[in-house]
Amino acid sequence: MNMDLTVFCKDTLTGDAVSGCLGSGRDITYLDWIFSAWGWTVGVSLTALAIALIVGSIVGVMRTLPDNPWLVRIGNAWVELFRNIPLLVQIFLWYHVVPALIPPMRDMPPFALVVIALGLFTSARIAEQVRAGVQALPKGQRYAGMAVGFTTVQYYRYVILPMAYRIIIPPLTSESMNIFKNSSVAFAVSIPELTQYALQVGEETARPIEIYLAVTVLYVISALLINRIMAFIEKRSRVPGFVSSGTGAGGH
Question: Within 10 Å of residue 21's Cβ, how many Cβ atoms?
């Protein structure tokens, strides 16, 4: 089968070729549409990642508190709940079930519900990484913070977490890349992201090979950008002699 990349230059309504491939005014080409879908994918992924980092960090810290067994149990329950339910099931629960049980959420846009579902699903994985990072530190760091009079909040903030985050940057890099791939489930509730675009446009144009190749390239570009950003962060935040240079984010 011959490749026909001119499919991206066609008007989405009339099928006519558009000069320059980018539409203007009422003309919208499939190239315009794929960039819009990419924007939705990036928006869903980055917003969900922000939620996952915040919630995951809180839950991860809760699981390592030395004198709060109930908070540890709550954190453990959170991880087990969100880690052991398939992501697609969680998407449907947030989209169909939760709004039915909580009336104010009925007015939330599908984008917000998908972001919450993806963010909380990923938060369980990040919580596990934070817990592992904190527990990998020598206990002497905790005792040193206590010795200078820090409260629990203070020695976590100024002593424990800054070092723990440096340890877990490589797995955080992988998780950040995964969230872009996992955002593809948003098509199940009609979010116009890249996977939804590929399914619909592949059928409309009868050119699925070209469409899926383009979508694949955009997913790869997104993941590589995240990888390079995290590698830069790891390099700038590395403490000489503490984190091995062989565990860089670039290796993932």
Answer: 15
φ and ψ of 105, to 5 deg: -80, -5
Angstrom distance (rounded) from CA 242 to CA 167? 9
Cα gap 46→182, rounded to integer Å: 12
* C-alpha to C-alpha distance for 186 and 104, rounded to whole angstroms: 22
201: Cβ–Cβ under 8 A, 6 or more apart, which residues?
30, 33, 34, 211
pLDDT, residue 245, reads 39
Averages of pLDDT over runs of 10 residues in the chain (252 residues) are 78 76 74 92 96 96 90 95 94 93 90 95 95 88 81 86 90 93 89 91 88 94 93 84 47 42
**Residue among 170, 80, 160 nearest 129 (CA):** 170
**169 token code pair:** 């940057």
Predicted confidence at residue 25, as pLDDT, reads: 62
Counted residue by residue, the chain has a size of 252
Backbone angle region of 155, left / alpha / beta, with phi > 0 → left and psi within -120 to 50 → alpha: alpha
Pick the closest to residue 56 from 23, 83, 96 (CA basis): 83
User: In angstroms, how far is CA 145 from the centroid of its own chain?
Assistant: 33
Residue with tokens 């489930």: 185
Cα(204)–Cα(201) distance, integer angstroms: 5
Tokens 């199940």, residue located = 188
Q: Which ranges in the chain belong to alpha helices (H)?
A: 30-62, 69-83, 87-92, 98-101, 110-136, 139-147, 152-155, 161-167, 169-182, 194-205, 208-237
